[in-house]
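anyone seen this seq b4? input:
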Amino acid sequence: MLLTLDVGNTQIFAGVFSGEKLLLRFRKTSNNIFTSDELGLFLRQILRENDIVPSDITDVAAASVVPDVSRTAAVACARYFDTEAFFVRAGIKTGLKINTAYGQKLGADRLADLAAAQDMFPGQNLLVIDFGTANTYDVLTADKEYKGGAITPGLGTGLKALCQNTALLPKVEIVRPRQACGLSTETQMQSGLYYGQLGEIKEFIYRVKTEVFAGEDFRVVATGGFARMFESARVFDAYEPDLVLRGVKVLWERNRVCARRREAVHAE
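predicted toks r here
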């Protein structure tokens, strides 16, 4: 079995694959300091509670945008799963055409999203939107060329900025409001967050349509925790909540094959 980890600024999103089947998914807060032992024990406990024997995990693959947690996860995997974790990073085989200058700076989670979207929707122009601490927009052509993207504050980050930089605005639940014009401070904040983000999404889709694909068809693929909130707005063609985990798996497979080929050449 393969344990996949998406290490973000707010949480670790994890999944267990048996072949092509995703057996389990779970999350852990990552903005608190924890040791490799704490992480390793947590992972083993979650597996056991879901009837998965920890020793059945033969490989671990991860995408991380938090270097300190990456080191912690690497030690935890070596100690508690007796395996060297594969990390998505610049220079690995992606199967995508990414300019070297861009590839060195593109986040591991974004590489995984793109790899998964291309694997799921081959031969199609793609706009991949990932809703997280930061929202990321990434554009990939049908022939796998990366055309760039954008980064904006996520909903949670926007709410945090409002609360921390004003004296009277409260922390509110992030939900889709019933109407644009709220009658209380709370509903007005909810409206501003939701419709502000929806307007952002529509504008970027329009810009990609006119600036990149010049009227050609393209598929909008969404993922991330808050993506579901915008499903009813019908701005996406597909909502894939496990996109990054599947992308980590795709990249692990592509690089595992390469490693085996190199080993075979050296053996000869």
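Residues 185-211 form the longest helix (27 residues). Residues 100-249 form a domain with the Nucleotidyltransferase; domain 5 fold (CATH 3.30.420.40). kinda curious what u guys think
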